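Minutes, project check-in
Item: structure for the 372-residue chain
Input as provided by the requester:
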Amino acid sequence: MLTGIPPINPGASIAAIDTPALVLDLDAFDRNLATMANALRGSGARLRPHAKSHKCPEIAKRQIKAGAVGICCQKVSEAEAFVDAGVLDVLVTNEIVGAAKVHRLVRLASRARIAVCVDDARNALELAAAAGDAGVVLDVLIEINVGADRCGVLPGEPALTLARTIQNVPSLRFAGLHAYQGSAQHLRSVAERRTTIERAAAAARTTKELLARAGIPCATITGAGTGSFMFEAASDVYNELQPGSYIFMDADYHANAWDGLPQFEQSLFVFTSVMSTPTPHRIVVDAGLKASSIDSGMPVVSAYLGLEFVKASDEHGVVRVADNARMPALGEQLRLIPGHCDPTVNLYDWMICIRDQRVEAVWPISARGALV
């Protein structure tokens, strides 16, 4: 969780940023907010961006100001950090199991609009008992497995059975279906992503129709990510969308094809410095595994031809220098594009926000390390 004091003061030159540091280009970030708002205008789908990408209440507030209805989180402790900061409409897109977590969740529901996902009747009844004891009514969405093969009850009859269980307890309110197809987000071609989401939407549509025949209204079908949200928006099935990475982007998302789809800019960088130049073809920077996640591949050196980040250890990043590339100087500051933005953000307490070559703000990443 957040510790210490901000690493730099607003007004400082970007050259004064000590490294490694997590840095947000505010001009690109603002354009990404606008691009998403423009993309969804008239679609009939509302935006509920996923805050697991940024873990930062200031960003959530700016997303809401730009038109979002609220945010998503994955953990109770994430939701607590956002509610404490005044973000009061939160969907926990995860199953919350176990007495300690469940009681924290229902306590939070007395302070804010909180919804949560379930895929098991036993968990639903656990939530119901805690909500009843706390005197709150908890919004619950049934998570259905639409192809990602992670959490989720099967679409159709299994989802209907679970919805009937939820309807039979007064401390729960059936709020809809959570139908996120996470494995579609990094299918590289547009056609692959479109086809995969069409299958997911068909499963959600069939389930909604089954619920309707049973007299159970399904007000919300929510899901989608940065790689697919336009397909969910066009489906006439989803009416709430959860993209998260669009505000930042990363090297893995840039590997997708985006033909005909909204284009988002890279706004998030890890600033790093050259700490060693041991050979003409190798430099070492001060950003390694503890500065940038490599689960989706190595970071990419931004705006510098001929440099390839090839190896990361705890505190070192090894960069190959091509024959025709300019050799960076000892101490020179470089910008890295993370392979995967979400876990990279979780490595930092502060996000340094820059504009016009100066530090404009430093935002706390208040939900950093919120794992329970």
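Outcome recorded: The mean pLDDT is 97.
No further action items on this chain.
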